[in-house]
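Internal ticket - ligand job 413, aspartic acid:
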Amino acid sequence: MKVFKFGGASLKNAKGVRNVTAIIQSYKAPLLVVVSAMGKTTNALEQIIQLSFYNKDATAEVNALLRYHHDILKELFPSDHEAFSSVEKIFVELGHALQKDTDFDEYYDEMVAKGELISSVIVHHFLQAQNIPSHWLDARTCIATDDSFREGKVDWGLTSNKIQPLRTILRDQVIITQGFIGQTANAQTTTLGREGSDYSAAIFASTLDAESLTIWKDVPGVMNADPKRLPAAIVFDELPFKEAAEMTYYGASVIHPKTIKPLANKGIPLHVKNFDDPSLKGTVIHECTVDDLPPLIVFKDNQCLISCKVTDYTFISEEQLSLIFHALTQLGLRVNVMQNSAITFSFCLDFRENKVMALIHQLQQHFEVYYNTGLTLITIKNYDEASFDTYRKHKGVLLEQSSRSTLQVLIKP
Ligand code: ASP
Ligand code: MG
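stdout (structure tokens):
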């Protein structure tokens, strides 16, 4: 069997749903399909969550989201089709949830999950309307997580047990389910982190020992740089798991960082293909060696550089370093690059404002702290002479670091 994953961009309108259906129809193998919320639905829901949680009126935003989905439904189904009432039911639930009084992260997960539920219901009904035997699955009944809301940690054993019975359904039906969402032991909705649908697809593929996972995207495959920034970027035919995993670590957004590991552990190849033109080869990520990989360039925006300076003529000590890392761990923050000198320890991390400000506040009790926001971290993996020189001479470099294979420069754009 195979697993497919379609992201929000491939399902942003009725044409997208038709296209996804055509792709599903053209594959004969037993298939489990993971879908994300349509278009920018998750961002819209985040706005609704932010407003309603703080008791501000979100009616206009909810209506806009309803209209968006309604327009898609109208293009796909006759007006008396049950798809309308299925989607309406989810919006009614969303309306009820608006009055709930809970912790922000719990509220967020309960609400934001609606985006995936809606899109999967629409795709399921459309497949059925095309006479493709389809089974709608609530992914929450399979993906078991702990109660770390907004970044649920998967209980692999339990999840695998819950997924096994799907094999029977897959014999004669395509399973349509949601990415991104899961459930705690007491049936509360959780999510796996933004853009987590790729990871969901990898969980299904891994626990079902799938032949392969295909992620359908709006790019021709995995490229050595973001073509919007570097138009000369090229598409890889194939990439080793290790290379792809490291790319995502440095911030390449083509695949969610947690996707590779479960697939690599089981040797399940990951195809990245273009949903506008399925005839394109795309990229296969699998166990292989590729000689002479070109430089791989990753831009990571919204970076914050923090420098902790000791002021009493002592030097940065291991004890002080452990203090800094303890604070980072407590706040769940991840360092993207770091550098030490006699009296200053500097590091760069994603600027998640609330958490970073809390960190700075803590560090100020021990150090003189300086920080800079709005920075971009550029990582050049497998650099060559030309790329090494180009990026080191980039305008506005605040910090630079290189190893034998990787150059990183932090710049103020
Ligand atoms: N819809 C979710 C998001 O936009 C999950 C995903 O797209 O992977 O973050
Ligand atoms: Mg998305």
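Auto-summary: The chain has a mean pLDDT of 95. The radius of gyration is 23 Å.
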